Structures are given as structure tokens and as C-alpha cells.
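Q: Given only this backbone (477 positions), what sequence would you predict?
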């Protein structure tokens, strides 16, 4: 009860404070001021950063404007920082003596980076987590169970919700939900899209009745489309257009930068779903010029915590995402750090103008700036087809989606004139010989014809047949 009272006071303070009172423009100006202040002191924050700046002949103290900062011939990457310097060189002097926790990146690229948290930062983390949960799920008056199904030691400290850390054990998660859910007002499941599919497939075995559980989802690790959100909603008795039935939301984290860099809100979810229904808006606001382009994730972010940039933007505004961290207590200072994601900054005036031109009512907009994340930079084939489109197309037909695991592989080495061969893993118990491979379609357009689709029994799938869900799955080979 003391934690709940503290949460209410903190939440009320935030509602009356800066984030609620100030416009997005003012928040962004404050964030830019913080960025310049932090960067001007960069050469004194870590030996590695000082060395990198010196090699580029950059005097950080001379950078007095955002225009100067964004024009710098300077970026940080996993390769030129974590792979090149020791921890002592990367960290602020003395900070290694006061570490509370270490989080590794996924290692999907073959190399690892590290997110370090000091004791000072760690003491603030539960309050920050609870404020985020309160904003989305009103945990101050709803007794809440959070089931964390993320791998790699990802944890979510909280003073106000009951936490179950089950990692990628679907049996453990479902048994626990069945037993404990009747004692709670709501269950919040944190997971990635592929593991969530497994969780749904195994529901019957563990006799979990989702119709009796008020369920919310926080989905991370990968992008997903609205067909997937609709499919999951039907399974969990959630109407994605009615938050009262439950929320299916997403959060984007990067191990070395933070677990909640970008996040969906009720406004961004509704906005993305509305744009998805109007091709003209998809083209203008999301740069979706054909069925080969995925529907980007639409996130908000806190401009007082991170400064977001897009490098080498194309004609539609997409380029490589770069993130600068603004926390003065950060253990490893990172500026213009390339995440490997394709992103586009989306301004509210552009949204309002596009909706007006389409004859649509002005949408509700979040109180923070927005960014589109299209996926990783390497996820588009030479034909122009993006992996994200295939991911969502598999869930356009619910009957077929029920029979697959969600894992698939497109191989660049198997071109068949216009299309690549698509290998799809069936869920456990389904037999490929009994199923006719369908055309893979986006709306009414065929992306990959059935003759280029091969279905595999679960155990026979040759591209990760022992999927352990601990590692990020590679959809493109």
C-alpha cells in the first residue's frame, strides 16, 4: 500500500509537471539544450569518447547549436565502441565501481554490446517503470500481475505489481497464469511476437480460458503488423480498437541504450490502425508505396531522455536511426549511436495536414514526439520485398495462421525468377503433407505464389528446428 501511495503522488506530480504542461516543441527545445550541454562535456566523460573525438578532430566544446551537432562527421556504432575499447575506457571514470546491473544486447549481429546501470540509476528504475505502467494500465487501483516472458535476463523492477519472471518457458507461463489470474484484476504479459504465438498455441494444453482474464500485452524485440495485432486480439478476447477490453502495445528497446526507448501509446495505436486503412495516408505519412513496404511501427519517445536523429534520409524521410543519451548519470556515454534500424521522424503538423487533406477528422495525438521504425536495415530483398510484409501477411488468414509456428525463412540463394522461396514452419502436431500451401497475399495482391511456398513439419524445419526463443530468429537467409 505504501508503494501505491507513492506511485499516486509521483503520477500526480508528473501530471501537474513539465511533461503534461509543455508542448512538444518546448519539450524538444529542452531536450536539445540538454543534448548540447552533455555533448560539450563529452571529452571529459569517458576515455573512449575523448579518443574518438580526438581522432575526428572534433572539439565538443565548440559545438554550440543543433545544426553543428547534426553536421558532425561523427557516429558511434557497436563496432567502433564496444568492439574496440575496454569497459574501463568506455565508462565514465569510477563508474565501474558502482554498477548495479549489466544487460547484454541480443548478439544477433555476432557481437555483443552492454547496457550498464549504476546504483544511483537503479534506485530510480522501479519508479520510472511504475509510472509507465500507471500511464498505460492504471495499476494504482487494479491489482496487477506482470508475467515477463522475455529472454536474456531482461527484468522489469516494480514496487507496485506482482512480477513473475518465467523467461521463454511457455509451460511455466501458462501454468502460472491459470493459477494466479483469478487473484488479480489484470495480467500484463511481456514477450516477443514469435514466443507469443507459441504461448497462444499451447493455451489449450494448459486449459487457460482467456475470456475470463483481463489481459494486456507489451510486445518487444520485433516489429509486427496490424494483421498480427488483430489475430492476437481474437485469441485473447481483446478488441484492439477498444482499450477497455485490453491493450496490445509495443515497446522498443536496445540493450546498450535502454529497454523502453520508444513505446506505443493509446494514441499511436489508434493512429497507426487508422492510417493502415487509408492507402493515401500510408503513402504520405509512412512512405508505403507498394505492398512490398511494411507498415512501420509508430512510437512515441521522451525527448528529455534521448535525442533521435535519422542519417542519410531517402526521399521518403527514412534513414539510419541514431540515438544520443541525455542522462547525466549514464555509465557509458553514447552520442549518435547507430542502432541498425530504419527510421523516420514524424511531425504532428504533417499528420494533421494529411488527415485534413483526406477529409478525415483530426486524430488524437500523443503528448510526445513520434518516430516510425520500419525494421532493420538488412531486412529488404533485392526484389524490394521487406521481411515485415511477409510476417504480417501470414496472419491475414486466421485459419492458416493457426497452423503455423510463426517462424519462416526466405533464402536469397533460392531465387525463382521474380520471387524467393519461402519456407514456413508448421506448429507442433501439424503435418505438411495434409496442408496445401497457400498464396502469400497482402490484401488481394499475391506476394509469393503457392508454388514458391514450402511447408515443413515442426521438427523437420531446417532453419532453427530447435527454436529455443532465447536468440532472435533469423527470417532472412
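A: Predicted residues:
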Amino acid at each position: 500500500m505504501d508503494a501505491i501511495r507513492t506511485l499516486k503522488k509521483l503520477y500526480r506530480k508528473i501530471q501537474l509537471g513539465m511533461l503534461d504542461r509543455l508542448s512538444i516543441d518546448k519539450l524538444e527545445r529542452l531536450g536539445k539544450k540538454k543534448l548540447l550541454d552533455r555533448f560539450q562535456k563529452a571529452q571529459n566523460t569517458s576515455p573512449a569518447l575523448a579518443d574518438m573525438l580526438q581522432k575526428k578532430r572534433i572539439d565538443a566544446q565548440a559545438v554550440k547549436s543543433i545544426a553543428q551537432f547534426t553536421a558532425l562527421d561523427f557516429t558511434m556504432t557497436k563496432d567502433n565502441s564496444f568492439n574496440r575499447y575496454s569497459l574501463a575506457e568506455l565508462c565514465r571514470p569510477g563508474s565501474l565501481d558502482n554498477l548495479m546491473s549489466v544487460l547484454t544486447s541480443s548478439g544477433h549481429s555476432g557481437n555483443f554490446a552492454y547496457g550498464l546501470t549504476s546504483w544511483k540509476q537503479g534506485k530510480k528504475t522501479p519508479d520510472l517503470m511504475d509510472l509507465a505502467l500507471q500511464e498505460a494500465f492504471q495499476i494504482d487501483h487494479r491489482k496487477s500481475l506482470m508475467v515477463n516472458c522475455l529472454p536474456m535476463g531482461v527484468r522489469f523492477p516494480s514496487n507496485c505489481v506482482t512480477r513473475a519472471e518465467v523467461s521463454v518457458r511457455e509451460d511455466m507461463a501458462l501454468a502460472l497464469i491459470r493459477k494466479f489470474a483469478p487473484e488479480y484484476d489484470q495480467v500484463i504479459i511481456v514477450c516477443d511476437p514469435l514466443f507469443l504465438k507459441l504461448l497462444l498455441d499451447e493455451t489449450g494444453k494448459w486449459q487457460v480460458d482467456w475470456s475470463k482474464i483481463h489481459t494486456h500485452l507489451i510486445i518487444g524485440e520485433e516489429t509486427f503488423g496490424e494483421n498480427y495485432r488483430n489475430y492476437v486480439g481474437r485469441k485473447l478476447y481483446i478488441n484492439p480498437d477498444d482499450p477497455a477490453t485490453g491493450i496490445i502495445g509495443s515497446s522498443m528497446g536496445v540493450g546498450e541504450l535502454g529497454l523502453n526507448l520508444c513505446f506505443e501509446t493509446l494514441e499511436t495505436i489508434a493512429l497507426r490502425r487508422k492510417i493502415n486503412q487509408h492507402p493515401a495516408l500510408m503513402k504520405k505519412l509512412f512512405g508505403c508505396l507498394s505492398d512490398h513496404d511494411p507498415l512501420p511501427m509508430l512510437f512515441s519517445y521522451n525527448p528529455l531522455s534521448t535525442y533521435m536523429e535519422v542519417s542519410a534520409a531517402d526521399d521518403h524521410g527514412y534513414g539510419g536511426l541514431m540515438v544520443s543519451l541525455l542522462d547525466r548519470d549514464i555509465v557509458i556515454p553514447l552520442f549518435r549511436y547507430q542502432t541498425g534500424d530504419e527510421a523516420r521522424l514524424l511531425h504532428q503538423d504533417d499528420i494533421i495536414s494529411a488527415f485534413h487533406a483526406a477529409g478525415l477528422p483530426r486524430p488524437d495525438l500523443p503528448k510526445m514526439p513520434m518516430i516510425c521504425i520500419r525494421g532493420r536495415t538488412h531486412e529488404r530483398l533485392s526484389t524490394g520485398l521487406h521481411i515485415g510484409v511477409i510476417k504480417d501477411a501470414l496472419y491475414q488468414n486466421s485459419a492458416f495462421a493457426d497452423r503455423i509456428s510463426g517462424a519462416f525463412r526466405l533464402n536469397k540463394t533460392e531465387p525463382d525468377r521474380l520471387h524467393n522461396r519461402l519456407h514456413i514452419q508448421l506448429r507442433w502436431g501439424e503435418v505438411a503433407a495434409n496442408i496445401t500451401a497457400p498464396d502469400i497475399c497482402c490484401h488481394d495482391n499475391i506476394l509469393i505464389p503457392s508454388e514458391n511456398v514450402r511447408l515443413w513439419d515442426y521438427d523437420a524445419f531446417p532453419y532453427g528446428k530447435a527454436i529455443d526463443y532465447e536468440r532472435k530468429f533469423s527470417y532472412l537467409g
